[in-house]
Amino acid sequence: MPIKAFLFDLDGVIVDTAIHHYHAWKRLANELGFDISEEFNEQLKGVSRVDSLNIILEHGGLTLPDEEKRDLAIRKNEWYLELVSRMTPDDILPGVATFFSEVRKAGLLTALGSASKNAPLILERIGMSDVFDAVIDGTKVEKSKPDPEVFTRGADELEVLYNECVVFEDAVAGVEAGNRAGMFTVGIGSPDVLTLASMVAPSLDELTVDTVLEQANKPQ
Ligand code: BG6
Ligand code: MG
After folding, report:
1. Range(s) within the chain of domains with CATH label 3.40.50.1000
2. Whose CA is nearest to atom 13 of ligand 1?
3. How far apart are CA 136 and CA 75, in angstroms?
């Protein structure tokens, strides 16, 4: 099937909010008396707020009542919002603007597929609210990546088949979600981490739409 749509993760692909999530979670872990490393943080990428908190608490060997967990998630989000509230269009990652103009020229549809409930706010801060043909964020899905729901819903809204889509993802869980949806996955980051992606590039800056289409349209 020729590719008709590109589906983008937000955090770590369009903007570097991944680092803000990490700093806010690290602050929370430190307050609880333990630490998390950048390496540990890889498994939190793409994972919902509540699932991330559970993974962190397990790492720290803590079992807490639901009410306390709710409060912790709210605190982490407040710190995170403090960090993202200062974002501007200057925070869009290198190569994104050029890549999106190529996407438009190629006549492809686009969707955002983000686990974040803050995605609409971030899109507004960086001036990209009107860029996507469909926006699926953490408020619209029931299941978190690596479940494919965020991407299958995006494809459904765009009215394209799953194998007509390419997913751009910086997270291991997100690549798995795209793969499970039956989509071609472009890992944004390191090939040592994103081992299951169909292809990998360090950033959108290093990619052209033609290069991606050439690979994705090859018979698999
Ligand atoms: C994903 C991030 O995009 O969104 C995760 O990669 C984050 O790190 C998740 O936990 C949920 O984000 P939010 O903004 O709803 O807490
Ligand atoms: Mg991401």
Report:
1. 5-15+92-216
2. 116
3. 24
Residue intervals in the chain for CATH 1.10.150.240:
18-84
- Model-level pTM? 0.93
Superfamily for 18-84?
Putative phosphatase; domain 2 (1.10.150.240)
Q: Residue type at 116?
A: S
In whole angstroms, what is the distance from residue 60 CA to residue 32 CA? 8
On the question of pLDDT at 193 being above 70, the answer is yes
Could you tell me the strand order of the sheet in which 134-136 lies? 134-136, 109-113, 5-8, 165-169, 184-188, 199-201
Tokens, residue 31: 């307050």
Q: Is the pLDDT reported for residue 11 higher than 80?
A: yes
Exposure of 64 by Cβ count < 10 A (0-12 exposed, 13-18 middle, 19+ buried)?
middle
5-15+92-216 adopts what CATH topology? Rossmann fold (3.40.50)
Give, using CA atoms, the residue closest to atom 14 of ligand 1: 116
Residue 138 scores a pLDDT above 80: yes
Are 87 and 67 a contacting pair, CB within 8 Å? no
**Residue 25 and residue 18: Cα distance in Å, rounded?**
11
Q: Identify the DSSP state of 93.
A: P
- Match 């029931």 to its residue by tokens: 142
Indicate which atom in ligand 1 lies nearest the CA of residue 73: 16
